Amino acid sequence: MSIQSNLNTIKASLPEHVTLVAVSKTKPVSDLMQAYEAGQRIFGENKIQEMTEKWEQMPKDIQWHMIGHVQSNKVKFMAPYVTLIHGVDSLKLLQEINKQALKNNRTIDCLLQIYIAEEESKFGLDENELNELLTSVEFKELKNIRILGLMGMATFTEDQNQIKKEFTHLKSIFDSIQTLKTENCELNTVSMGMSGDYQLAIECGSTMVRIGSSIFGGR
């Protein structure tokens, strides 16, 4: 199957309110251009250097999403162009994104990463840390970032019931913070679901899915 037909098949299966992020990490620009020519405009990368190189080479109407774990000292390299940063898991990182956004005269959209899995290797905030962050004075002072919502990654398991429980938990946290909206919060996005579990994620309330191997083939 070609990248174009893979993409068309997935897009046809998505409800209108769900945004598709094509996860293009490690893939060459030629593969991304096939997806671009098939109409895809949102690409997700997990390394800032690789994303920046692709941004430099590719059409400028592409939205670049940083989906990997972000180190504060690398934020400045993507601040001029990144559309959405998915995995924000601390006030310190938000403050750095805000600082670099201000330098570039931009407002950068972010998702806060919530820890929902039963695996030690995953990053993220728990519910208490999330509430503390959103109600803190320091957070309200950040004028050059905008929180669009939450993201989370389920445990890597075959157990559909466990995955469903984790996705449902993320959606319930998202619903619970709607009252905490401030000027720098829009809270309209729940990013969960990847190639193996995106249909289940959508059933549980996802509005943004990150799909790589089902579009581009294995790594």
TrEMBL record:
Keyword check for Cell inner membrane: no
Record carries keyword Repeat: no
Location of N6-(pyridoxal phosphate)lysine modifications: 25
Protein name in the entry: Pyridoxal phosphate homeostasis protein
Free-text function comment from the UniProt entry: Pyridoxal 5'-phosphate (PLP)-binding protein, which is involved in PLP homeostasis.
Keywords in alphabetical order: Pyridoxal phosphate
Lineage: Bacteria, Pseudomonadati, Bacteroidota, Flavobacteriia, Flavobacteriales
Organism: Flavobacterium ginsengiterrae
Residue ranges occupied by any Alanine racemase N-terminal domain in the UniProt entry: 3-218
Domain of life: Bacteria
HAMAP family: PLP_homeostasis
Transmembrane segments: none
NCBIfam families on file: YggS family pyridoxal phosphate-dependent enzyme
Family, similarity comment: Belongs to the pyridoxal phosphate-binding protein YggS/PROSC family.
Name of one Pfam family that matches: Ala_racemase_N
